[in-house]
Structures are given as structure tokens and as C-alpha cells.
Specification:
The protein is α+β, with helices and mostly antiparallel strands and about 650 residues long. Strands 10, 11, 14, 15, 16, 17, 18, 19, 20, 21, 22 and 25 form a twelve-stranded mixed beta sheet that branches. The relative contact order is 0.07.
Length: about 650
């Protein structure tokens, strides 16, 4: 069951009233602390997810801390939830302006063995607390992190690739996850007096989380179950989306840096922690479209604060040397005080686009075979990476940049990403990536197979329109790129089309097609579109030796994994008589056709062309036509494509 389906069932799964609060305080496993302020309607799904947990209500508590809401709605809803659900408590405080103080109030009031920090507009999966507690308890973890999924929010790209029972900063990419959405052993928090900085400020979660990471003996990461859905609100009212004031922001970052300097000695551990901030909070703010699009005054303000912080606290080359070329070049220009070149580079980076030539998109053994040659270049055609004297160089048009800064040395990763239009459900399929340098630039040949009956272990594709994207992660050319596959942003040179297909014992219909914009999509389970796509099929009636008729139907169709089982050919005869027989598959002699043959039990005039021949599967008509010997070209219908493409948005 997907996250959306779980959410829809939470309201109906509310647990019954449990034991008394005194008894519960002796056995509480988890406390969930939620800082709340003027949440309004966004609070309801959050509350539903909290009271619908698989843990009995006597084993966990929810502490809702209202930071002085004044919308006339939120405070009353909190009190109502506390009155209805025995595991819910509501605390009201004066407005502090930011989540730090209400979180601290909630932690002080918590009674559970572990304290989980949650935002008021996010969702917790039904088994999240139970599963996280089980992992944390068996490892005596100080910190437990459940898998986070994002809806319009950036989430860790590699941390959740596998379960990590026992890990640390040195053995897992923990610095990818700096949000507070984690479970902390309450005794651990008390022992080290860990508190969130209070008041209106930024990066209070970084200050808290980095100290927890540095002090923790054991961190556990639960990756085989999505525990938390981090949501970007439609009104963009999440605190993390508010505009940044450079002086205050980097003053707050300095507080986190000082925590690291206090708890570590100069060396690999300190470098590892500082490297994340140097790359994400500092160099990324000086690069790409976001920096290029700022006013000159704002550009200079960010540059001044970042450069000052870098000179004072990030001077060790071992901090930036392991980073990707796109980051090292920005850092080189900043250290050399080449502000104008930095602005020009940001414009170049902001114009970088993925262009893919789709070289293969056809069926092989019931799987869609995909292959593309992918290039990354600016709008003017300048490649992101050029081969110079045999060395791959990022932004080679820049002068006086040392090769140790501009040399590309990181492998790329790629995925097919399928997005269902109706629900925005996303599925990712990893692709094999091979670097290609035969034209003097660095490109990537990506390939893989898509099995519609089992996509990345998630089972068969749900019925609907699935738009196909290519996601490229090439660190040396900057942030991830997400592009539609097809002719809108590239080319299609594949010489074999991907035909309609019937797959599996249930004959799942899959119709690949190009949209009006020239992009690849899959129509799954739509019988009407399958009928349209099979319209060029040819039916021929043959007289049998015993005088009975047989019919062959030649169709532009792929069958695999039992997709032809249960197919029948039905022929309508005069006087409203119908005869039918099972269809058997035989080779067609060409890769873009399948021939189905059926022997019908009655005689018929093979020359008759005014009678209907129908190919059917239980409860569905797949194709209808009159016997003919004329083939026509494949002209499937073209469904419209949404005017707004899927985008990936970076969040706090």
C-alpha cells in the first residue's frame, strides 16, 4: 500500500482509549513532539497520522505545543484532539516566533524512552513509531532515523539506500539529513543537555542535530519502510521557504560550526562535518540559476558573508578537495576573490540542460528496453565537461582555474523516473551508466529494462498514464537534472517502436506512445486506447480442410508472460449468430507483429467482408475489424500532456 493509501485509512484506524496516564508513563516507548503555529487545515492529516499509529496508545504519546497560534482555529483543534485521544496532550505557550522553544517545551514534557521530533504539516506512516522503536531499542541507539520521503521537499539522496543498524558519521552519510525529524533517546538528550536554539532564527535544527551526531555512540537508520513524509505546503508557508537574510543566516551557521569546533579536533572528522555546510549552505548559494537570478546587491551580500565565513573557518584544503568539480571551481573563484567570474559561471550553470537521444525503446521478453546517450550542455551549446589533453574539465571556458579544481572525477548515476499523472506517484528504476568521451566532451550512455509487472520491486504499474523522465546525478556538473524523455528536450533515434503489449496472466495492457509534445509516456490498463492502437490489425478468414473456417489476426502487439492466455477470436455471422474459439500464438516472421490463430467450429464464406471479427480477453474487447488483406500504418491516438511538467524542488 502506498503512502497516499495509508493516509486515507488513518482516520478509520483510530485506536481505542487505553490505560490511565499514570500507568502509561511507566511504559511509554515513544514521545512525538510537534511544534504548532497557525497550522489550520494542514493539522488534520498530521493528527490523523499520529493517532493512527500501530503502537497501542498506552505505549506512546503525542505532545502538541502551540506556539501562540492566533488564527482562531489551531488552538481549539489541539484541545479537541487532546480531549478525544488519550495519548495526545496539548500545551499552549506565548509566541516565540520559531520552532526551537516549543520543541524544547515538548522535550521537557516528554515521558517516552525516545523522543521523535515532527513538523506540524508533515505525516507519519502508520507503523513508523513501532518500527523505529524496535530498531532503536535492539541497538540501544542514541539517535534513530526513519526513512523520509519528500513531497516538494529535498530528502537525503543516499542515506536510505539500506538499513543501518549501527552507524556513525564516519560510516554513513548522516550529514545528508540535518532536519530534526528523528528519534532521540530521552536519557541521551538529558545527559548532554541538548536543546534547540530559541527565538526567530535559522538553522536551529543544524545546531541541535550536529551535536547529537557528534555525541552519539550509536545511530540507527531504518530504510526499508518510509516513516515520514516531508511536505511542501501549497501556500509555501513552511518556515524553511522564507527568504534568507545573509548576515543572520551565516551568523546562525557559525553557531553550528562552533559546536563542531568545540567537540572535535582538526582532522578528518571535523572536515567531514564541515564539508557538508561548505558544499550545500555556502558554495551552492554562490552557484547556478538561484545566484545568477539575484539582484547585484543580493549577490554581493551572499558573497561577502560566505567568503568571510570560509576564510575564518573553512581554510583547510582537506575540506573541499574531495568535493565535485562543480563545487571546487566555485570555491576556487571565491577564494581568489573573482566575484565577476563567479557571477558569469552561475549564469552558465543555470543554463545547463540535459539532452538525451533515445537510442532504444522497445520490448524484449516482456520488458521495455531503454537506452539513451545523454549530454549536459548550456543553452548556447557549451558542454559542461570538455576533454582537454585527455582530462575531463568542468567549465573549460574559464581561464586560470587549476586542473586540481576543475578535473571531473566522479561517476554519474541515472534513473528512469515514472510519474503517474493522476496521483503524482513516483517510481524510480536505476540505469547502468557508461561514460562516453569520443566527441571531445563527456557524455553518458544510460540503459536499463522496465518490467511493467514489477517496477523496482513495487509490483505492477497501477492503471493510468505514466510519464517517463530521465534523472541524471552527475556531481561534477552540479545538482541533479530531471528531464522528460522524447523530442521536446532531445531526440529519438530508436529504429524499433515500442508496440502496445499484453503482459502477464491478467493481460495487463501497456501502450507506449509519444505525447503531443513528443515525450514518451505509458498508458497502462486503458483498453480503449489499446483498441485504437491495434486498429491497423489485419484479420484473414481461411477455409479449413473439413469446411470449417479458421481466422488469423495479425496485430502490432507484444505478448509476454502469459499475456495471450485467455484470448479468444469471436466472429459475428449473419442472423446475429456468433462463433468463437481460443486464440493461439504463432510467429509472425517480423518483430513488430504477432499472429493469433483460431479455428472456428462452423463453416463460413471466407470471402465475406461484412462480418465482424473480434479479439477478446475475459471482460474486455481488445480489437475489432472486418476480414481484410490490406495493412495500414500504425497511427495510435495521442493523449494530451499536462502543460506543467513535474519538477523537483529543493527545500530546507
Amino acid at each position: 500500500m502506498g503512502f497516499a493509501e495509508r493516509i486515507s485509512s488513518w482516520r478509520e484506524r483510530r485506536p481505542a482509549v487505553g490505560a490511565s496516564s499514570d500507568a502509561a508513563s511507566q511504559s511509554l516507548k515513544m514521545s512525538v513532539v510537534v511544534a504548532v503555529h497557525n497550522t489550520g487545515d494542514y493539522l488534520e492529516p498530521c493528527l490523523a497520522s499520529l493517532v493512527g499509529q500501530s503502537l497501542p496508545p498506552t505505549e506512546y504519546e503525542v505532545i502538541l505545543v502551540d506556539d501562540g497560534s492566533n488564527d482562531g482555529i489551531t488552538a481549539a483543534r489541539l484541545d479537541h484532539a487532546a480531549a478525544v485521544h488519550p495519548q495526545v496532550r496539548a500545551i499552549h505557550i506565548r509566541n516565540s516566533g520559531w520552532p526551537g522553544k516549543p520543541r524544547n517545551v515538548g522535550i521537557d514534557a516528554a515521558r517516552g524512552e525516545y523522543v521523535y521530533v515532527m513538523d506540524h504539516d508533515d505525516l507519519l506512516a502508520p507503523e513508523a513509531l513501532e518500527r523505529m522503536y524496535e530498531m532503536a531499542s535492539r541497538n540501544h541507539a542514541d539517535v534513530v532515523i526513519g526513512k523520509i520521503a519528500g513531497r516538494g521537499r529535498r530528502v537525503p539522496p543516499t542515506l536510505f539506500r539500506e538499513n543501518r543498524e549501527v552507524c556513525s558519521l564516519e560510516t554513513a552519510p548522516l550529514m545528508e539529513s540535518m532536519t530534526p525529524h528523528k528519534g532521540f533517546r530521552r536519557a541521551f538528550l538529558k545527559q548532554h543537555q541538548l536543546r534547540f536554539p530559541e527565538g526567530r532564527r535559522r538553522l536551529e535544527d543544524h545546531v541541535f542535530v550536529v551535536e547529537a551526531y557528534l555525541r552519539a555512540r550509536v545511530v540507527s537508520v531504518l530504510s526499508d519502510y518510509t516513516c515520514y513524509l516531508h511536505i511542501a505546503r501549497e501556500d509555501e508557508a513552511n518556515a524553511g521557504f522564507r527568504a534568507i537574510a545573509p548576515v543572520a543566516y551565516y551568523g546562525n551557521l557559525l553557531e553550528a560550526v562552533e559546536v563542531v569546533e568545540r567537540l572535535t579536533e582538526p582532522g578528518p572528522r571535523r572536515d567531514l562535518v564541515l564539508r557538508r555546510w561548505y558544499s550545500v549552505e555556502m558554495m551552492r548559494r554562490l552557484s547556478g540559476a538561484s545566484f545568477a537570478g539575484r539582484s547585484p546587491t543580493r549577490q554581493r551580500a551572499f558573497y561577502t558573508e560566505i567568503r568571510r565565513l570560509a576564510q575564518d573557518h573553512f581554510a583547510r584544503p582537506t575540506i573541499w578537495e574531495p568535493l565535485a568539480a562543480a563545487v571546487r571551481v566555485v570555491a576556487e573563484l571565491m577564494r581568489a576573490d573573482r566575484f565577476d567570474d563567479l557571477v558569469a559561471l552561475a549564469g552558465f550553470e543555470g543554463s545547463l540542460r540535459v539532452q538525451a537521444d533515445t537510442e532504444a525503446w522497445h520490448w524484449e521478453g516482456g520488458r521495455l528496453r531503454f537506452q539513451a546517450l545523454v549530454a549536459v550542455a548550456s543553452e548556447s551549446g557549451q558542454p559542461a565537461i570538455t576533454i582537454v589533453d585527455g582530462v575531463p574539465v568542468y567549465a573549460a571556458h574559464l581561464t586560470d582555474v587549476p586542473l586540481e579544481a576543475s578535473t571531473a572525477r566522479n561517476p554519474a548515476e541515472a534513473w528512469l523516473q515514472l510519474v503517474r499523472r493522476e496521483s503524482r506517484t513516483r517510481l524510480r528504476l536505476p540505469l547502468e551508466v557508461v561514460t562516453v568521451t569520443d566527441d571531445g566532451t563527456q557524455r553518458y550512455r544510460v540503459q536499463g529494462e522496465l518490467d511493467p509487472l514489477d517496477v523496482a520491486g513495487a509490483g505492477p504499474l497501477e492503471a493510468g498514464i505514466w510519464d517517463v523522465y530521465l534523472k541524471l546525478r552527475a556531481p561534477d556538473v552540479g545538482p541533479d537534472h530531471l528531464r522528460r524523455i522524447g523530442t521536446e528536450h532531445g531526440t529519438v533515434s530508436a529504429d524499433r517502436p515500442a508496440l502496445p503489449a499484453l503482459l502477464g496472466k491478467d493481460a495487463l495492457a501497456v501502450v507506449p506512445y509519444l505525447t503531443e509534445k513528443g515525450n514518451l509516456s505509458l498508458d497502462v490498463g486503458a483498453t480503449s486506447r489499446l483498441v485504437e492502437a491495434l486498429r491497423p490489425g489485419v484479420a484473414t478468414v481461411h477455409p479449413g480442410a473439413d469446411g470449417a473456417s479458421s481466422i488469423t489476426v495479425s496485430l502490432p502487439l507484444q505478448l509476454a508472460d502469459g499475456g495471450g492466455d485467455g484470448l479468444r477470436v469471436v466472429r459475428a455471422l449473419p442472423h446475429e449468430v456468433e462463433v468463437s474459439g481460443p486464440a493461439t500464438l504463432r510467429p509472425a516472421g517480423r518483430p513488430d507483429q504477432v499472429v493469433l490463430e483460431s479455428h472456428l467450429p462452423v463453416t463460413a464464406d471466407p470471402a465475406a467482408t461484412d462480418v465482424l471479427v473480434t479479439l477478446s480477453h475475459p471482460h474486455r474487447i481488445l480489437w475489432s475489424g472486418v476480414p481484410t488483406s490490406q495493412e495500414s500504418p500504425l497511427l495510435p491516438s495521442v493523449p494530451p500532456e499536462p502543460s506543467v511538467p513535474v519538477t523537483e524542488r529543493a527545500g530546507g
